[in-house]
Amino acid sequence: MALIELKRMAQGKSSTLSHLYVNGIFACYLLEDAIRKTKVPGKTCIPEGSYKLLLNTWGGMNLDYRKRYPIMHKGMIEISGIPNFKSVYLHIGNTINDTAGCPLFGSWYNLVNDEFEVYQSRLAYERIYPVLTRIVAAESVHLTVTNQHL
């Protein structure tokens, strides 16, 4: 059984820098909204926990990603079963302005004006998405989310 982990490592003013691990191996950086005790819609990262990953082929961003990646796209990688959240996908983006609670892929990061940003998001997505979709299509898998060094 595959082990997929999101480990939160550092916080900016309104951003959180995380690491994504697949079977114990660092895969890429992730950018999330701030960790908050009380949810602020569109500005809060998902809570710690274990959540099922699935391929969502019907909603949200599928049309855009199908156009951008006609051969590779099999569906959005959705993090499901999160209390008080819906339609949370792992996707492309660089700043917290590109997310509303969804983790964004990044190849590297920087801290700009006390906010984390990730870069080469498309490259990270193109590298990690096929790995994750193979795992999600083959077995029931969960994403474990933990706050590490915060």
Automatic annotation (TrEMBL):
<dbReference type="Pfam" id="PF18925">
    <property type="entry name" value="DUF5675"/>
</dbReference>
<dbReference type="InterPro" id="IPR043732">
    <property type="entry name" value="DUF5675"/>
</dbReference>
<feature type="domain" description="DUF5675">
    <location>
        <begin position="5"/>
        <end position="132"/>
    </location>
</feature>
<protein>
    <recommendedName>
        <fullName>DUF5675 domain-containing protein</fullName>
    </recommendedName>
</protein>
